[in-house]
Amino acid sequence: MRAFLGVILLFSSFISVPVFSQTLGDPQIMFKQANEHFVKGEYNEAIVTYDNILEIAPNNISTLKMKAIALSNSGYHEKSLKEFFKILQYQPDDVTALTGMGIGFGNLGEYQEAKYYFEEAAKRKPDSVVINNYKEFTDKVIAKYPYSATEKPDRLEKKETIKIPDWVKPVAKWWSEGQIEDVEFASALLYMIENKIIQIPPVETKSEKVEKIPDWIRNNASWWAENAINDQDFVSGIQYMVEKGIIVINIKKSQDEIQKEKDYDFYLFEKYLHSISKNVADEKRYIEYPNPSQDVIKKFLRDYIKWNFEEEVKSASSNFPDPTYEIIDDVYVIHYKVFVNEQPTGLPLNHVSTLQNSFLFWKNQELSTNGQKARMEFEITNQKQDANVWVTWVVRDIGQGVLGHAHLGKGVVEVTLGDYNCDGSFQLYDVKTVEKIMTHELGHSIGLAHVSDPNNIMYPSLKPNYAYCLLG
Ligand SMILES: [Zn+2]
C-alpha cells in the first residue's frame, strides 16, 4: 500500500454585511474593513472601526453584535455585556445577543443569570448545538460551584411569567364574540402596554388600514379567555396585531420618553455589572468560562512536546504493521488494530465515543479489495507497536484549512478539533463535525481515496460546525 496523505479541507464561512441606509462615510465599506481585522483576531483595530460606524449609524444591530463579540473574545466581559444589552433593548428576541448575554454573565461567574439567557435563547432556537452546549455548561457549573448571586435592580428583573389582570379576560371574550368594538378592546390593551404587562417592540407599524381582524386572532382571544392557551400565547397574538398595524393603539408615550426609559435601564444595567465585578473581586470568585476553547488550546500548546506529533506523522506508514485478514465465505474480513491517543486536556466534548460511530460506519460498508468483497473490523489496542492505525485529535494548525489527514491503508490519522476561522479566535468544532472528519480520515486509513460526490463521506471538503462560537 502506498504511503499517501489524504487531507480534508474546509469551506470557509463569511460574515454577511448589513445594508446601511446612510451613505455618509460609507459604513458598508467600513464594516467590511473592520471584519477583515476581526477574522484575523485583531479585535482592537476592529472595535475602533465599529465605533466609527456606530457614530454614523447608532444602534446598528449588526455592528453592535460584531463589536460585542470582539469585546468578549478580548476578555472585556462587562463591555461586551453592555453591547449585547443594547441590542436586546431594540430586539428582545435576538438569539445571538441572548446567547452573548449568557456567555458574558458566565464569564463573570454569575451562572444563574447566564442560565436564564441561555434558556431564553434555547426557547427561540431549540436545535442549536451551540446554545445547548452552553446550557449544559451552566447546569454543570451551578451544581459544582455554589455562589451568591449579585443583587439586581428590580426594574431590570425579567418578567418571566406575564401576569394579566383578571378583568381583561371577559373583555377579550366579548371582543372575540364581536360583542364589543375594537376600540374598547384596544383600551384594555393600551392599559397593559402602558403598564408594561405587554411589551411591544419599537417597530414601525404599517399605516394602511386593515379592514378585517384575522380570525385566528379572535380565536386566540377566545381561547385565552377560556384558559385554553396561556398568557404568553395571547400576548404574542396582540404583539402581532400591533406590529402589523391591525390594531392601532395610540401609545401616549413619545419616542423620547421611551428612549429615556431605555437609557435609565442601561444606567441601571451598568450599575449592576459594576456590583458584579466588585463581588467577583471581593469573593475571589472562581470562574469557569462557558467557552472552553481558549483553555483547550492554551493547555494543548503548553503540553505540545508531550504529544510528539511531528515524529509520529513523519514516520512513514510502512513502519506500521499491515492489518491481518481472513477470508470468510469469499469475503475478505480485514482486522484493524487501532491505537487511540488521549484527548487534549480540558476538552468537555467526548470524541472517544463518537469514534465508535466512525468504526461502525465503515464496518457496515460493503467494500472491495483486489476485486473481492471486503469487510472491515476494528479493535482498539493499547499497544502502540501492534497498531495498524494510530488515531489522534489535535488542535494544532496542520495546514491552511486542513481539517485532518491520514496515511492511506494504515498509519497515522490526525483529526483537528477546532480552528480560528469562525470568529478569529480558536473555536472547537462540535462533536458531529469531528466525527465526520474522523470517519473521512479512517476511510483513507482503510485505503479509500477521494470521490467527487459531495454527499459521500470521502468528498474532499467539509464545512465545519462549531461547538461554542457565536458566529457559527
Ligand atoms: Zn481526505
Describe the structure in your own words.
The chain has 17 helices and eleven strands. The chain has 472 residues and is an alpha/beta fold. Strands 1, 2, 3, 4, 5, 6, 7, 8 and 11 form a nine-stranded mixed beta sheet that branches. Strand 4 (367-369) and strand 5 form a beta hairpin. Helix 4 packs antiparallel against helix 5. The longest helix is centred in the middle third of the chain and has 29 residues, at 255-283. The radius of gyration is 28 Å and the shape is elongated. The two termini are 39 Å apart. Residues 1-6 have low confidence and may be disordered. The site of zinc ion (ZN) has 7 residues, from strand 1 and helix 17.
Question: How are the SSEs placed, and which strands pair?
Answer:
Layout: E1 5-10, H1 27-39, H2 43-56, H3 61-73, H4 77-90, H5 95-107, H6 111-124, H7 129-144, H8 168-176, H9 182-194, H10 215-225, H11 231-244, H12 255-283, H13 293-302, H14 304-307, H15 309-314, E2 324-328, E3 331-340, H16 352-363, E4 367-369, E5 372-381, E6 389-394, E7 402-407, E8 411-416, E9 418-419, E10 427-428, H17 431-445, E11 461-462
Parallel strand pairs: 1-11, 3-5, 3-6, 6-8
Antiparallel strand pairs: 1-7, 2-3, 4-5, 7-8, 9-10
Helix pairs in contact: 1-2, 2-3, 3-4, 3-5, 4-5, 4-12, 5-6, 6-7, 8-9, 8-10, 10-11, 16-17
The site of zinc ion has 7 residues, from β1 and α17.
